[in-house]
Write a structure and sequence with these properties.
alpha/beta; nine-stranded parallel beta sheet; about 40% helix; oxidoreductase activity; EC 1.1.1.-
């Protein structure tokens, strides 16, 4: 059965105290898979996760990511072994641990020296610094290269009722599905979250037609659908109230026949970029 984890990108939205309460509430609810990244709030999320769970490390499945570099102008990408080695060491220090259960390369393009990155990750796994090798990517050409040439244990990629592109690749690898609530569109607040830009391959007009037809509770069906494809479903929360809503939705009963019908009628859109 798929596991519910917690993505931590937005836990500091309302300050450190609320972020710590979110982590503790998730732990109390039985969540043990906590996902973070060095770039989340300029390293502060990793520090918060590390300090909150100090002394409980062995109870957690702890993951982080590296490869994105904060700059004065925003972000740049560096997949080199030299950079990743330092990034990983810094993440371990902030998280107060000497190993990660799963470490992701956080993005990448087909133009990178992927063999160098793959070799680095393999060496970290052999040394026991990381237990599993992950790739966080939305690019099918990069995903395929890693699967063909790398020792890839886990793929993180978007997955929701409104973004089922990964199903089109028919992969035989555990998937961690991020964004299962599609930026709030798969919640009772969907009408407030909907913009004229639509979402992924969906136009705003199409979403106005389809979202009211999803059975309720909509969050429960969204999470249940993600569990059909993903080994771990990874929503985020920016408040304890949001976290509690997620826990309740994850525990809610859904009608399997309604879920089957829903998945049958919602399209699996193809990838339109980075296919080759």
């Amino acid at each position: 059965m798929a596991e519910l984890g917690l993505g931590t990108m937005s836990i500091l939205k309302h300050g450190e105290a609320e972020g710590r309460r979110i982590l503790e509430a998730a732990y109390d609810a039985g969540v043990r898979h906590f996902d973070t990244a060095d770039v989340y709030d300029h390293f502060e999320v990793e520090r918060l996760v590390g300090s909150t769970f100090a002394g409980r490390r062995d109870e957690l499945f702890l993951t982080s990511k590296g490869g994105n570099v904060r700059t004065e102008d925003g972000m740049r990408w560096d997949p080199s072994a030299t950079y990743l080695e330092q990034a990983l060491a810094d993440s371990l220090e902030r998280l107060q641990t000497d190993y990660l259960d799963l470490y992701y390369v956080h993005g990448g393009t087909i133009e990178d020296d992927l063999d160098e990155t793959i070799t680095f990750m393999r060496r970290q796994k052999q040394a026991g610094v990381i237990r599993h090798i992950g790739l966080s990517s939305i690019r099918p050409n990069v995903i395929r290269y890693w699967l063909e040439h790398g020792e890839l244990d886990v793929l993180m990629t978007p997955y929701s009722l409104l973004d089922r592109r990964i199903e089109s690749l028919d992969l035989d690898i555990p998937i961690v599905g991020r964004g299962p609530l599609a930026k709030g569109l798969l919640t009772t607040e969907w009408s407030e979250r909907l913009t004229d830009k639509g979402f992924e391959a969906w136009t705003a007009s199409e979403l106005r037609d389809v979202l009211p037809t999803i059975p309720t509770p909509i969050q429960a069906y969204a999470l249940a659908a993600a569990k059909r494809t993903c080994a771990v479903v990874l929503p985020g929360a920016s408040s304890v109230d949001q976290l509690n809503d997620l826990i309740a939705a994850n525990q809610a009963d859904v009608d399997s026949d309604k879920l089957d019908e829903l998945l049958a009628r919602l399209p699996i859109h193809p990838y339109t970029k980075h296919a080759t």
